[in-house]
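Is this the right way to post structure tokens for a design question? Let me know if I should format differently. Anyway, here goes:
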């Protein structure tokens, strides 16, 4: 019994540490399970693709006896190296990665940390400038996005929730959950599903799942780079490639802002605040800056002597009429009731 009481007392005192340790274990298990599932799904496709490439290479060498295996190896290595730098041997005369609009698309993916990887600096000067540019640009971009998101959250989330809370007298936590759910649905509809349908009509080699995959990967700043719009277009299919790239850049920036607004709205839910508090070391209720300032002011006020208390000790005690009447009855006297002089009290105040 004493041991069980000690265990219960220890768990109660270190509840936040235990919850945090369980959170770490859960996250590691989530990583391991995800890796196992991806490996089980993708490994057979990788083996099949390797076998197809091996057969295609053997067929090419058998049909072109003038080309040796070493020469083909050198050509393929050079082509893959160029492809890693965003230069493809297919349609190389029509696709440009470093005109102004393409460079603008590249800078937007760098500063938003999306990083598709389809275009990378080729020169050492470009690589050095990319480091310097990102070192300054990424914090500025985060500050810029946080300022925009804060204004939009106040306009789109906080004010509507407060308005309907006063208008309908609904519970604020439940109303916040309903609002966050509706906002997430609207965002997913206008910035994921509808753009995926648009990309499906513009990109002939994509199906709807691939278009949806690109939108989700881009707006969550994962940016794997396996699907990039406009990479397979010819001049006949896309007569305005620069305008197309510019529209994609605008879509990515606006979509990222909307995703951050939804995340911030969900982050401010009272239910999530209560859940997050279980993993904090200090079991203190989360307070906004105004409440914190009020508490700090109260603590400072408690440390200082209150002038009102000092004056109260100097003021005469004024008894009520009923108390004086009771005293008169007990004493049997008929002294009339005389209130305390207001002039004396006012002078002391």
């Amino acid at each position: 019994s004493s041991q069980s009481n000690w265990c219960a007392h220890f768990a109660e005192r270190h509840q936040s540490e235990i919850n945090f340790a369980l959170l770490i274990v859960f996250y590691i298990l989530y990583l391991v399970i995800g890796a196992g599932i991806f490996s089980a799904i993708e490994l057979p496709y990788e083996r099949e693709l390797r076998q197809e490439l091996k057969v295609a290479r053997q067929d090419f060498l058998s049909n072109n006896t003038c080309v040796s295996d070493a020469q083909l190896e050198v050509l393929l290595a050079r082509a893959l190296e160029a492809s890693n730098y965003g230069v493809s041997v297919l349609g190389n005369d029509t696709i440009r990665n470093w005109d102004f609009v393409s460079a603008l698309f590249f800078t937007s993916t760098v500063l938003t940390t999306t990083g598709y990887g389809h275009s990378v600096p080729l020169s050492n000067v470009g690589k050095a400038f990319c480091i310097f540019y990102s070192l300054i640009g990424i914090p500025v971009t985060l500050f810029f996005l946080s300022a925009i998101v804060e204004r939009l959250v106040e306009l789109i989330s906080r004010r509507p929730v407060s308005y309907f809370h006063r208008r309908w007298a609904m519970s604020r936590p439940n109303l916040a959950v309903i609002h966050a759910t509706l906002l997430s649905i609207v965002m997913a509809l206008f910035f994921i599903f509808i753009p995926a349908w648009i990309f499906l009509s513009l990109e002939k080699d994509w199906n709807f799942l691939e278009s949806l995959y690109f939108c989700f990967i881009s707006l969550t700043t994962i940016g794997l780079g396996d699907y990039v719009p406009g990479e397979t277009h010819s001049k006949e299919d896309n007569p305005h490639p620069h305008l197309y790239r510019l529209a994609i850049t605008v879509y990515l920036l606006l979509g990222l802002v909307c995703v951050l607004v939804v995340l911030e709205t969900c982050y401010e839910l009272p239910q999530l605040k209560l859940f997050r508090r279980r993993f904090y070391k200090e079991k203190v209720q989360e307070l906004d800056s105004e409440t914190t300032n009020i508490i700090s002011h109260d603590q400072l006020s408690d440390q200082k002597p209150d002038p009102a208390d000092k004056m109260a000790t100097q003021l005469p005690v004024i008894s009520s009429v009923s108390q004086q009447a009771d005293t008169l009855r007990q004493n049997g006297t008929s002294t009339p009731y005389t209130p305390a002089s207001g002039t004396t009290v006012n002078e002391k105040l």
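Format looks fine. Someone answered above. Worth noting: The chain is about 70% helix and 0% strand. Residues 283-288, 294-322, 333-349 have pLDDT under 50 and may be disordered.
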